[in-house]
Amino acid sequence: MTKTAARPPAEAIAVHPVQAPPPAGGRGRRRLADQARAYGFLLGGLVCFALFSWYPAIRAVVIAFQKYTPGSSPEWVGTANFTRVLHDPEFTAAWRNTLTFTLLALVIGFAIPFLLALVLNELRHAKAFFRVVVYLPVMIPPVVSALLWKWFYDPGAGLANEALRFAHLPTSNWSNGADTALVSLVIVATWANMGGTVLIYLAALQSIPGELYEAAELDGASLLQRVRHVTIPQTRFVILMLMLLQIIATMQVFTEPFVITGGGPENATVTVLYLIYKYAFLYNDFGGACALSVMLLVLLGAFSALYLRLTRSGEDDA
Amino acid sequence: MSTRTLVSPAALARPRGRAVYWTVFTAVVVLFAVAFLFPVYWMVTGAMKSPDEVAQTPPTLVPKHWHSSGYTDAWDLMQLPQHLWNTVVQAAGAWLFQLVFCTAAAYALSKLKPAFGKVILGGILATLMVPAQALVVPKYLTVADLPLIHTSLLNDPLAIWLPAVANAFNLYLLKRFFDQIPRDVLEAAEIDGAGRLRTLWSIVLPMSRPVLGVVSIFALVAVWQDFLWPLMVFSDTGKQPISVALVQLSQNIQLTVLIAAMVIASIPMVALFLVFQRHIIAGISAGSTKG
């Protein structure tokens, strides 16, 4: 759309016969004043974006190639930061843990909310109750959720083992065992975050036209077949969106490992973001931290770009 | 609203269908109570047990003796009023800064046609592709030593307020909403002699109440729930928000006192949610399907 096409009424009023047409110089000045005013409104936001989004993004890449400690002048070191970080044994552990966490979160934190939404959508009573209760953990601060589950996982008086004992099952080390710690953290993250996912699925399920189920049923489709051939294809777009969002979110996990396990036991829960934090604030090695940040940025940026592309094309369809 | 879903109404009406329905219904109610309500109950009552009782196995379902000292100790020993106040200041400031600067910028981009407006909008939207947490370290360095003016915002609430403005999602939400306001309405105001600011204040903002509500809730919740960023920028214990203080103090404090503090830290956001649940849930459900 061109600028003139959008504003014929204003133009018509400006050249009202009684008024003399404004001189060219006046119009230019008017336009300049308009621009100044527009930028006046933009200024605050623009400064904040420049300082806290654009500049740090560029700076992450620059510092990744520098030896950098605050207070002293930076020194170019080429790819030394990357090679140093790559040779850190924690690097492999952090990436392996982060990817495992994301994968487990997709399996656990993905199937459960979908099934839950599927069942909730069939219930005719107490809908408001279910919606409020499932979203309640999302409103509890993540730090509180983490501390709460740390207490549940406690090997002594923890509720998790008590529940297992109650069901006559063998107890577990939960977050204290090297092989169970990561799964324990995924459970916390799923519990704390699935409210939003369930609500989004519910909305998507409600938008499926009822005739499709009716037609499928007339053709003799069983319940499972209806889920497979109607529900899943109809919600495929939302499923894909949420999967991408979840990958982006879970790969930045920090609070749970920091609060519950401190990265242990035996580095079993050190994540990439945790390692970035360690490089910056424990080792005072900002070059290494930025090298790691750039790696995370490139990987997650690709997922974000894909997500944005898909949501925009989805908007056009709607 | 009763549209046809996976299970047909006819199947539900049959005696067998009805039995299955009520079984599933009961199972889901129990599941929800155990999974989502019970942890909250456990936390609230756990803080009221005696230190011995909370550590005993098997645990007691109901406190033998109700103590309120967990809550009062948490309030006093952990300096909760101080940390809660810090959080309120940080959240309120972030909300106000976002509302003022994001609204102004969105209004300019949507209605004032600034030169290079499209480039600026593109630059803002591009930041959506950058995962926030991957940038915390360079952002920290920027806040610690602001370019040109060389001052540090560490331990200053401005370190929360100003970066909060750089929220492309909220800004885009506002711009999209402003785009829908017909140009004629704004031109009518202009003809009546209203300036740009007057038009924004008296015409655009009153029409934008729904989107301002959504942005407000997002802004408040984001600051209240954040952990990594305030952990980085507030090394001064007296300035820390409640989330950071809880973790820092969790090491050397009695369990019942810590649990009580956790409950207190959760109350503001849970209360906000219970008051505005209709709007919040509608917002999540509507915003998502449209993308």
Distance between the ends of chain B: 24 Å
Query: Can you count the beta strands of chain B?
Result: 0
Major sheet details of chain A: 2 strands, antiparallel
SSE sequence of chain A, one letter per element: HHHEEHHHHHHHHHHHH
How would you portray this structure in words?
- The complex is a heterodimer of chains A (318) and B (291).
- Chain A is mainly alpha-helical.
- In chain A, 75% of the residues lie in helices and 1% in strands.
- Chain A contains 15 helices and 2 strands.
- Chain A has a two-stranded antiparallel ribbon with strand order 1-2.
- The N terminus of chain A is likely disordered.
- Chain B is mainly alpha-helical.
- The radius of gyration of chain B is 25 Å and the shape is flat.
- Chain B starts with 8 loop residues before the first helix and ends with a helix.
Please give a quick description of this structure.
The complex is a heterodimer of chains A (318) and B (291). With 318 residues, chain A is mainly α.
Features:
heterodimer; A: 318 residues; mainly alpha; MetI-like fold; 15 helices; 2 strands; 75% helix; B: 291 residues; flat; transmembrane helix (chain B)
Q: What is the topological layout?
A:
The complex is a heterodimer of chains A (318) and B (291).
Chain A lengths: L2 H4 L1 H7 L9 H41 L1 E2 L7 E2 L3 H8 L1 H34 L4 H13 L2 H11 L6 H8 L14 H26 L3 H9 L4 H12 L1 H15 L4 H7 L10 H10 L4 H32 L1
Antiparallel strand pairs in A: 1-2
Helix pairs in contact in A: 3-15, 4-15, 5-9, 5-12, 5-14, 6-9, 7-13, 9-13, 12-15, 14-15
Chain B lengths: L8 H5 L1 H32 L4 H5 L13 H9 L2 H33 L4 H10 L9 H9 L13 H8 L2 H12 L3 H9 L4 H12 L1 H17 L2 H6 L8 H8 L5 H35 L2
Helix pairs in contact in B: 2-15, 4-15, 5-8, 5-9, 5-12, 9-12, 10-11, 12-15, 14-15
